[in-house]
Amino acid sequence: MALHPDSIRRILIALIEQAQSDLQKKGLIRKDQAISPLVFGTSANEIDAFAVDEATLGFDSLSRLELISSVNRFFQLSQTGAEDYLLLNPSIGRWVETVSQHATLVDEGQTYGFATSGTAGPVSIHLHPLQRLEAEVDALRTGPLNGFACPSRIIALVPPHHIFGFLFTCLLPSMIGADVIDLHRHAPSALARMGQPGDLVIGTPFSWQSVAAAGMAISRGLHGITSGGPSTDETWLRQGPGRPEKMTEIYGATETGGIGSRQAQEAPFSLLEHLAAVDSDIVRAADADQASLPIQDRIVWTADRQFRLGGRFDQVVQVAGVNVLPAQVAACIGEVTGVADVAVRPGNDRLKGFVVAKREVEDLQALEVKIRDHVRMRLPAPARPGTLTFGAALPRNVMGKPCDWAEPEETRSADVPYVAS
Predict the structure, then answer these.
(1) What does the alpha-carbon distance between residue 12 and residue 4 come to, in Å, rounded to a whole number?
(2) Distance between CA atoms of 18 and 20, rounded to whole angstroms?
(3) What is the pLDDT, as a whole number, of residue 274?
(4) In a domain, 421, yes or no
(5) Does residue 397 belong to any structural domain of this protein?
(6) Do 46 and 9 lie in a common domain?
(7) Alpha carbon of 303 to those of 87, 115, 212, 409, 410: distances in Å?
């Protein structure tokens, strides 16, 4: 199943936006070159005319090569050698054509490479053949989406280049002929203005929380999909503004794709139909070798093909749908001159940090500014602590073990958490 050119264009824009974000951190791109505001209210033809060069989007010869590598990794253009044409034809429109031609040549042999967020360790690329992705979408259609009228519109509150967004806002629309309304760069209130009865709305727990916090009534008859992070009590509330009439949660990861689904907070997850349980492992039923999927959570089976999550094997937490390793964040803060010790834990809606300053530090406010500047340059927004607490020693309980601490409201960061693009 070939992707629609609109989906390819959306993915390219997201990859460009991601690359520009790195350039902005290094001071190598002007604000007026950022693609996000440039595509607002702009037609596809106008977007296709944008040159991927230094004058238009801020890519010099070196950064353009890095961007091309990113595009190649996602679409696996090296299967046909099509990545060479990206350098020869540096415009978004020609890149859309190149990717489309590549997809035609490889047909069902197409493979996509999805990157992990990088907040739980080094960024890694996980390859998923198109046939596997199509099998997953078919399993979603016959499983959690079965009985829901085939939507003519899918609203995206998530970016398209992560596997969750790709499956629901690129591949699914191509398979059922639905239009895509991309709102992931818009304010949360946009769903109230643009949503229509019968829309399938794709979001994360954080984006659904943001829609509800906007306080505006959305159209009746919306079916919400949530993934990219553990759902919360608020995710499942059906009363009040910003609440869809129906919600489905998909459990999965970049490494594995979707694993299970449920439609109530207290319910166990049901294993998706394209998967099978073999002993204590989960495998793809159609794969000859039936290698177990690298699932990062403990699976507790409650019945045939039904399970609950027993917690992660590692110490990763999720903020705004993004995996974050608190120990890695603490190590980053510890690099700042003047910091003697630091602890990082999950807070109310973001991470929180507790900092012990070195004895010679007299101005804690100046130290906090240094810390925030440092993490802003080194970490994506979901990994930046929302609050910082300073004390003479890290909090410990009566047994001498590390313990939690209250978040000081007055030091809450002005950074706004977001779903990483």
Answers:
(1) 13
(2) 5
(3) 95
(4) no
(5) yes
(6) yes
(7) 53, 33, 34, 44, 47
The answer to whether 3 and 171 are in contact (CB under 8 A) is yes
Is the model's pLDDT at 47 over the cut of 70?
yes
CB count within 10 Å of CB 122 equals: 6
250 and 392 fall within a common domain: no
> Can you give the pLDDT at residue 149?
67
Residue at 149 is within a domain: yes
Could you read off the pLDDT of 319-332 as tens digits, one per residue?
887 888 898 899 99
**Does the pLDDT value for residue 150 go beyond 90?**
no
Percent of the chain predicted with pLDDT > 70? 93
Would you say how long the chain is, in residues?
A: 421
Instruction: Tell me the pLDDT of the chain averaged across its residues.
Output: 89
What pLDDT is attached to residue 400? Answer: 55
Q: Cα separation of 116 and 139, whole Å?
A: 23
Give the confidence band of 170 by pLDDT, cuts at 50, 70, 90.
Answer: very high
Strand order in the sheet with 179-182: 179-182, 153-156, 200-203, 223-226, 246-253, 257-262, 269-271, 306-312, 297-303
Q: Are residues 78 and 134 in the same domain?
A: no
Residues in a beta bridge with 181: 155
Residue type, 291: A
Within 13 A of 277's CA, how many CA atoms are on the CB side? 16
Bridge partners, residue 276, by sequence: 283
The secondary structure of 342-370, three-state, reads EEEEECCCCEEEEEEECCCCCCHHHHHHH
Whether the per-residue pLDDT at 418 is higher than 50: the answer is: no
The amino acid at residue 370 is K
> Which of 365, 367, 357 lies closest to 393, judged by CA?
357
Domain count, the chain: 3
Of 174-188, 289-303, 373-387, the one with minimum mean pLDDT is 289-303
**Domain range for 38:** 1-109
Please check whether residues 132 and 52 belong to one and the same domain: no
Q: Under a CB-based contact definition with an 8 Å cutoff, are residues 67 and 19 in contact?
A: yes
Given 291, 314, 337, the domain boundary residue is: 314
User: 293: which 2 tokens?
Assistant: 């999927």
- Residue 67: band (very low, low, confident or very high) from pLDDT cuts 50, 70, 90: very high
Q: How far apart are CA 317 and CA 395, in angstroms?
A: 20
Whether residue 180 is found in the same domain as residue 276:
yes
Round to the nearest angstrom and report the end-to-end CA distance of the chain. 25
Q: How far apart are CA 204 and CA 271, in angstroms?
A: 20
Same domain, 48 and 173: no
Dihedral sign, Cα of residue 296, residue 326, residue 266, residue 214: negative
- E strand residue ranges, 264-368: 269-271, 275-278, 281-284, 297-303, 306-312, 317-319, 322-324, 339-346, 351-357
